[in-house]
Write a structure and sequence with these properties.
mainly alpha
Length: about 90
């Protein structure tokens, strides 16, 4: 009796269980094509934070440039160096 149950169970799992599991997760994956409203709110918040930090850096750089006329913007040289490395 056990000689029949094990092969039937294995064949059932291979041909019914495994495709069912794969199709279940495929439909779950396709139903979530976009980002959630929570993720979108988080991205907006991070974008605003990055914009404010960039404004603060610009302000600090203007203050430093006003105090020291020989000072040059380090971000510009860093960006140009990074672009050269990417090419």
């Amino acid at each position: 009796m056990e000689d029949i149950i094990v092969p039937v169970a294995v064949v059932g799992m291979l041909f019914i269980g495994l495709p069912g599991l794969i199709l279940h997760y495929l439909t779950k994956w396709k139903s979530q094509t976009g980002i959630s409203s929570q993720d979108e709110a988080l991205l907006d918040e991070l974008h605003d934070l990055a914009r404010r930090l960039d404004q603060r850096i610009d302000t600090v750089e203007r203050i430093i440039a006003a105090d020291n006329p020989n000072w040059k913007d380090g971000r510009i040289t860093d960006l140009s160096e990074q672009r050269r490395q990417l090419r």
